[in-house]
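Example 9 (inverse folding). The structure is encoded as follows.
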């Protein structure tokens, strides 16, 4: 048995003002990834809202095309879709920067070609397919700029 004098008493890391041995990262490094994830999530919400806005614009324009072809009921639906698109854009701007959210609206171009082909039976050539792929890739590159180091 020992009388307590043989072993010097050491303070625990918490008592000495340090951290426990449970964690190997400093407190600031632990919090930073969570903040970065929160930023990414907010930006993704903004991008998603802009993409839905782009879809609303395209379908609104499709309704106007149908209205021009003598389907009169589609005028009001097209207007509703345009108003919904504007409202979504306004909300989306709360979640990111204009420079990364606005280019998402360029999805109107490939989506318009796809609608024209499947709804109105318009033909799409190889050049237009390449353009759809390039515009889509450009939107991904510009809007995906949150992964900068």
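The amino acid assigned to each position is listed next.
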């Amino acid at each position: 048995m020992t009388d307590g004098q043989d072993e010097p008493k050491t303070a625990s890391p918490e008592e000495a003002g340090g951290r426990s041995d449970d964690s190997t990262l400093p407190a600031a490094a632990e919090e930073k990834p969570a903040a970065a994830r929160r930023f990414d999530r907010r930006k993704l919400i903004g991008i998603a809202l802009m993409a839905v806005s782009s879809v609303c614009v395209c379908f609104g324009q499709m309704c106007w095309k149908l209205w021009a072809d003598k389907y009169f009921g589609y005028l009001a639906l097209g207007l509703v879709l345009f108003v919904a698109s504007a409202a979504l854009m306004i909300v989306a701007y709360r979640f990111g920067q204009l420079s990364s959210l606005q280019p998402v609206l360029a999805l109107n171009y490939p989506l318009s070609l796809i609608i024209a082909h499947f709804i109105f039976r318009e033909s799409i050539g190889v050049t237009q397919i390449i353009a759809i792929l390039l515009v889509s890739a450009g939107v991904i590159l510009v809007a995906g700029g949150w992964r900068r180091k």
